[in-house]
Amino acid sequence: MTVSRIAAAEAPAAVGPYSQAVSTGAAAGSTVYISGQVPLDPATGALVEGGVEAQAEQVLKNVGAILVEAGLGYADVVKTDIADFKAVNEVYARFFTAPVLPARAAFAVAALPLGARVEIEAVAVRP
Questions:
Q1: Which of 28, 88, 93, 99 is a good FRET partner for 53, with 20 to 30 A between their CA atoms?
Q2: Which residues 6+ apart lie within 8 Å of 101 measured at CB?
């Protein structure tokens, strides 16, 4: 197995010593692990304004940019973990629309990086 780093210019750079995502290979069935994304505007590096819904939308756009860099899309996501489940659910449903939706977990945290109100991580599998 070969592990490689995925870095999308259209998503914010990692804010610590980690990768935006890593892939276990390019073959069908290989896995892409996307680190928890917070609602940073990739152009400015600043948190987006407008409340939890606006932050959820930016997070999912960031996840999407990483998926595109990996040659994948939202339909390839098999698992997500989200914070602030109730508020994010409506926005989340606009991005994940495939007939088979990803498995998902919701978690509560005391504080997210940079004061964000939303964080989402994902796992995708290459078709």
A1: 99
A2: none
Q: What is the mean pLDDT of residues 41-45?
A: 94
Six-digit token string for 111: 């504080």
How high is the pLDDT of residue 8? 97
Which runs of E-coded beta strand occur in 71-113? 77-83, 103-107
Exposed e or buried b for every residue in 2-26, given b needs 16+ CB within 10 A?
eeeebebeebbeeeeeebbbbbbee
120 phi/psi in degrees, rounded to 5:
-135, 130
Whether 123 shows a pLDDT value over 70: the answer reads: yes
CA–CA separation, 107 and 61 (whole Å): 20
85, 108 Cβ separation under 8 angstroms:
no
Mean pLDDT across the chain: 92
